[in-house]
Each structure stands twice: as C-alpha cells, then as structure tokens.
C-alpha cells in the first residue's frame, strides 16, 4: 500500500510517499501560502497513492488539502484522537499542534522514551515524552528565521541576514554581528531550555532535533544527542500504518 504523507506547517508543506516502512520517495515541498487546488493538481500529477495522512497546523490549508485528497482515496488528519501509541498527559489534548504529536510519535518510535524532541521550524518547539511513554507538554519559542527577520523589519539601518555560521563571536560587520546574535544566541536559548526541562525530569533524557534549522543550531551543542531530519514524517508514517491497518503498524 502506497501512503501519501503530508506535513502542512506554517512555512513549507512537505509531501512524501511511503511504500516500505522508513523509506520515503517523491519527497518535495510547496510554500504553504501557495497551497490551493491548482498547485496540488500540478504537484501530485502522475503520483499514485492508496491513502493519505495529513498533519496540519494551518486550518484553512488543511481544509483545502482534505477536500482535494478526499477525491483520491481515504484520508486521515492526525489529531490527539489518532492511534498515536502514546498516552497524553496534558489538560487540553486537542490544543496540541498535530506536528508536535507527530514528532512525539516519531521520537519515541525511533529513539525511545523518555525523550525531548526539538523542532526548528517557523517556531521552535520542545516536546517532552515521559518514560510511560506519554506526551507531557513542552515549550514554544520564536524560530531562528523569526529572530533574523524581526530586526531587519523593525529597524531603519539593519539588513535582512542570511542564517549562517558567523566567522567569529566578535562581529566585524553589521551582518556578522546580527548572525552572532541569531545563531550563537539561539544555541544559548536551546541549552537553557533543555537544562530547565531536564531539571524537571528523572534520570537521563535524550534530546533529538529536527526541522529546517536543526543541523545549523545543533552544531557544537552537546546537550542535543541526535539530529533526525525526517522525524515528523516518520511519526506520520507510524500513525498512518495504524490507521490504515498496514503490517507493522
Ligand atoms: N529551502 C528552505 N526554505 C525555507 N526555509 C528553509 C529552507 N531550508 C532551510 N530553511 C530554514 O528552515 C526554517 C523553516 O523550517 P521548516 O521547513 O522545518 O519549517 P516549517 O516546518 O514550515 O515550520 P513550522 O513547522 O514551524 O511551521 C526557516 O527558518 C529557514 O531558516
Ligand atoms: C507551535 C506550532 C506553530 C509549531 O508548528 C504548531 O504546533 C501550532 O500551531 N500548535 C498549536 C498550539 C500548541 O501546540 O499548543
Ligand atoms: K514542522
């Protein structure tokens, strides 16, 4: 059975086909702002699949995706009601972003629990999975992109910057100085939050990073144990296999 997995996030919407567990083909992305019936028809032209699973944190786009995919077979939208294989220890489970739930499933399945998963996307999210395993809550902070963009928009003299490793901590240009603030400053944010989370948990807890900016920020941060770029997709696949009753689900 061929599954179409869709991660509908605020910046990019990622698509992947899965026929064999853990192997993704036909992976591509579309800017989320451009998701409409037309772009979907073009992007999915010639791609065959039997069922699809949507993980959306953009309700209007989720509706467009669901309406389109419903014409092409069974569709499941990931939520706290989905067969996650995890408990949820949280006062209002239906308020948790579907991507955060997918990340919790992915990290538990691939790395075990307890764990902290950090997703460096438009926002950076930290999600905690207890030893049970159960989703226990987490942290939402501005993404690295937002940190870079904000100063360029709100000041007269500061430019937009490219988010790359600065050559030294002492910035020798406006751009370099801003890159230190964003990239090195961001690593400090990550270390401090991880330390506070681990302080409230028992024993050794691994931290796994994913999302667009994960490899840049994780560089040299020993508090992050692994970078797993496709963690959200793996979580989606795991849930899809259960929903559509595929072997190994
Ligand atoms: N080709 C790219 N296009 C857009 N962003 C990119 C790209 N490559 C890396 N990035 C970085 O990835 C970040 C966005 O990450 P990602 O694609 O994981 O976002 P997202 O999943 O849409 O975010 P979110 O889930 O928070 O909405 C941006 O801050 C940017 O710095
Ligand atoms: C935090 C984001 C934007 C990260 O993609 C998403 O998970 C979301 O919109 N969540 C809803 C609020 C919450 O998770 O508490
Ligand atoms: K994401």
UniProtKB/TrEMBL annotation:
State the coiled-coil residue ranges: none
Localization recorded for this chain is: Cytoplasm
Q: Which NCBIfam families match?
A: baf (TIGR00671)
Q: Which cofactor does it need?
A: K(+); NH4(+)
- Kindly identify the residues recorded as the active site: 99 (proton acceptor)
Please share the entry's free-text remark on the cofactor: A monovalent cation. Ammonium or potassium.
Q: Which UniProt keywords apply?
A: ATP-binding, Coenzyme A biosynthesis, Cytoplasm, Kinase, Metal-binding, Nucleotide-binding, Potassium, Transferase
Quick one: which pathway? Cofactor biosynthesis; coenzyme A biosynthesis; CoA from (R)-pantothenate: step 1/5
Q: What is its main location?
A: cytoplasm
Entry's family note: Belongs to the type III pantothenate kinase family.
Q: What protein does this entry describe?
A: Type III pantothenate kinase
How does the record describe its quaternary structure?
A: Homodimer.
Its source organism is Haloferula rosea
């Amino acid at each position: 059975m061929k599954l179409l997995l869709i991660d509908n996030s605020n910046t990019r919407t990622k698509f992947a086909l899965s026929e064999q567990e853990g192997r993704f083909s036909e992976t591509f992305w579309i800017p989320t702002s451009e998701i409409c019936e037309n772009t979907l028809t073009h992007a999915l032209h010639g791609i065959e699949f039997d069922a699809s699973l949507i993980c959306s944190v953009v309700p209007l786009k989720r509706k467009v995706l669901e309406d389109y995919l419903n014409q092409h077979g069974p569709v499941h939208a990931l939520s706290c009601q989905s067969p996650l294989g995890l408990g949820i220890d949280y006062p209002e489970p239906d308020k948790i972003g579907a991507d955060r739930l997918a990340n919790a499933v992915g990290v538990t399945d691939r790395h075990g629990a307890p764990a902290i998963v950090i997703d460096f996307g438009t926002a950076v999210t930290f999600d905690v999975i207890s030893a049970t395993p159960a989703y226990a809550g987490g942290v939402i902070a501005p993404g690295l992109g937002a940190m870079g963009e904000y100063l360029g928009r709100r000041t007269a003299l500061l430019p937009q910057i490219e988010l790359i490793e600065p050559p030294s901590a002492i910035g020798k240009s406006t751009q370099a100085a801003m890159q230190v603030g964003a990239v090195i400053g961001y690593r400090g944010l990550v270390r401090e939050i991880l330390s506070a989370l681990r302080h409230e948990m028992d024993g050794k807890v691994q931290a796994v990073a994913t999302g667009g900016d994960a490899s840049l920020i994780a560089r040299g941060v020993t508090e992050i144990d692994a970078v797993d770029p496709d963690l959200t997709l793996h979580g989606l696949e795991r849930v899809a296999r259960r929903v559509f009753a595929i072997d190994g689900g």
